Amino acid sequence: MRGGKRNGAGRPKGSRNKPRLQLEVEDPPKVPGRSQSQRMRELKQMVALLVSDGMAPSAIAAVMGFSEEKLRAVFAHELRHGKQIVRAQALAQLAAAGDGGNVAAAKALLANADGEGPSLGGSGDVTDRDRRNKAALTILNGGKP
Fold it and tell me: For the chain, first and last CA: distance in Å?
């Protein structure tokens, strides 16, 4: 036998009742604040909102403290579809408020669907509005109609 005499449990003789060394691994401490993914969602929402308001990419980059190249690389989707993203979110919030019993929101949603009432994102006739709504919801759903 190598390493000296051993008892039946595979430990050195005389170590039967001695406790084994156990290492306790602690979880890393929780860092207060937002997670990185939460911060990214907020930044994407801000870029989409600024695009929908008509702000130029160079101005958005200056306001947010990014170079224009980095803004175009990281937020390309929001720069292309910011207006539709904000419109889809507004429609979703309006629908949620209507589902929650808000009569004014339900009426506004119906008026928007019928082509009456104020448009949520531009002018155009009912067919343009329908196309915008469909495109906005497709974009909001990650490209799935």
Answer: 71
What HEC string does the chain produce? Answer: CCCCCECCCCCECCCCCCCCCCCCCCCCCCCCCCCHHHHHHHHHHHHHHHHHCCCCHHHHHHHHCCCHHHHHHHCHHHHHHHHHHHHHHHHHHHHHHHHCCCHHHHHHHHHHHHCCCCCCCCCCCHHHHHHHHHHHHHHHCCCCC
* Dist CA 78 CA 74 (whole Å): 9
User: CB atoms < 10 A from the CB of 21, how many?
Assistant: 5
Residue with tokens 């009426």, as numbered in its chain: 107
Q: HSE on the CB side for 127, CA within 13 Å? A: 0
Per residue in 45-54, pLDDT tens? 999 999 999 9
- Calculate mean pLDDT across residues 12-35: 63
Q: Is the pTM here over 0.70, yes or no?
A: no
Name the band, by pLDDT with cuts 50, 70 and 90, for residue 124: very low
